[in-house]
Design brief:
Its main location: membrane. By secondary structure, the protein is an all-alpha fold. It has one domain. It has helices at 2-33, 39-54, 59-66, 78-98, 104-119, 142-178, 180-185, 188-231, 256-272, 275-284, 290-309, 316-331, 338-368. Helix 2 (39-54) crosses helix 8 (188-231), helix 6 (142-178) packs antiparallel against helix 11 (290-309) and helix 8 runs parallel beside helix 11.
């Protein structure tokens, strides 16, 4: 049984590694597309900021570990978690191969829901749909933590991208009207030079925000695996070199070794790159200049940071994609390439049911093979 625990933890770390090169590609696409940083420089910056961001709170991890699946209805076993991870990893790799920036967050959530439904024999009460606790910021369930943010965060990313661009252009226009030295600074050459430097800050902010949200999702899965193993007695006879795996607290706590391991693995995945998705995000949707990259990264990172604070596992992909769309729309509505956007939207729509279906099928296969 201990072997199964280690397999689940390893699978979770594989997902985190895949998340690193899959979703981090989204977070650094703009800074590469604007040629402010080379791909290698952008990867180093993103990996470093991912690592720092992953240590900033555990609210999202707690949502994954205790806010989506009703443990009183379905037994969240190690096999269920393994199939959930299998669904998420498989869908991530499919979309990565196709160059589609789909959501690793929703792939993991879909996998978890699909495996839980299979384990509960299609009892939909196994999923926590909505649980009010008086304060909406602490409400649990798929409605509050997944579906509301899934709709609101892309809209917010788009609108904030438009707003930031409008404000920046208004400032530049005011400088041009002022005449003198300010007017010279409003020329395209100086604007590009300034935002080329400013985008280093916004790209670092984006990497930090990605770490605060995405790294925590796998932390929640590993925490669930450790709690399940403890309940089954699998941790009773741990060898001394694995003694750190004993949970320090209850189900709402995320141990420090889980945080550190997930942060390091995501940083390593980031270093592996993800240039297929960068090409789609940074070049195919709309042509970007440093001012556009700054606006898109600032908008997306703000959405991610706020969501992490409230424990909402939102999609880095959704927020940066729609922020780029918003920036492109502000620049010129006709500049957006809607055929590429349509492919991305379909990937969003399909992610949760597709990853859930794969996980559901895997658990049923496990049952047929007698592995449950």
């Amino acid at each position: 049984m201990l072997t199964l625990v280690l397999v689940v933890v390893l699978a979770a770390l594989v997902f985190e590694f895949v998340n690193g090169f899959h979703d981090t590609a989204n977070s650094i696409a703009t800074v590469v597309a604007t040629k402010v940083l080379t791909p290698g420089q952008a990867v180093i910056l993103a990996a470093t900021m991912n690592l720092i961001g992953a240590f900033m709170g555990t609210a999202v991890a707690k949502t994954i570990s205790s806010g989506l699946i009703d443990a009183s209805v379905v037994d969240v076993t190690l096999q269920v978690l393994l199939c959930a991870l299998g669904g998420g990893i498989t869908w991530n790799l499919i979309t990565w191969w196709l160059g589609l920036p789909s959501s690793s967050s929703h792939a993991l959530i879909g996998g978890l829901c699909g495996a839980a439904l299979a384990a509960a024999h299609n009892n939909w009460h196994a999923l926590i749909w909505s649980q009010n606790v008086g304060d909406w910021t602490r409400n649990k369930g798929l409605l509050w933590k997944v579906f509301v943010p899934m709709i609101s965060s892309p809209i917010a990313g788009f609108l904030l991208g438009v707003l930031i661009m409008v404000i920046l252009w208004a400032i530049i226009a005011a400088m041009a009207r002022a005449g003198g030295p300010l007017a010279r600074l409003a020329r395209p050459r100086w604007v590009n030079a300034f935002f080329g430097k400013a985008q280093l800050v916004s790209a670092a902010y984006m990497g930090f925000a990605h770490g605060t949200n995405d790294a925590q999702k796998t932390m929640g899965i590993i925490a669930l695996a450790i709690f399940a193993a403890q309940a089954s007695g699998s941790l009773d006879q741990l060898p001394s070199w694995l003694a750190f795996m004993h949970p320090d607290g209850g189900e709402s706590d995320i141990d420090s070794w889980i945080i550190a391991t997930c942060a390091l693995v995501m940083a390593a995945g980031t270093a592996a790159g993800g240039w297929r998705i960068i090409k789609t995000m940074g070049h195919k949707m709309v042509k970007l200049h440093p001012i556009h990259g700054f606006a898109a990264e600032s908008a997306s990172a703000t959405i991610l940071t706020m969501a992490a604070h409230f424990g909402m596992p939102v999609s880095t992909t959704h927020s940066i994609s729609t922020a780029i769309m918003g920036v492109g729309f502000a620049k010129n509505p006709r500049a957006l390439k809607f055929t590429v956007i349509e492919r991305i939207v379909w990937a969003w729509i399909l992610t949760i049911p597709a990853a859930g279906g794969i996980a559901y099928g895997l658990l049923k296969l496990f049952g047929l093979l007698g592995w449950l």
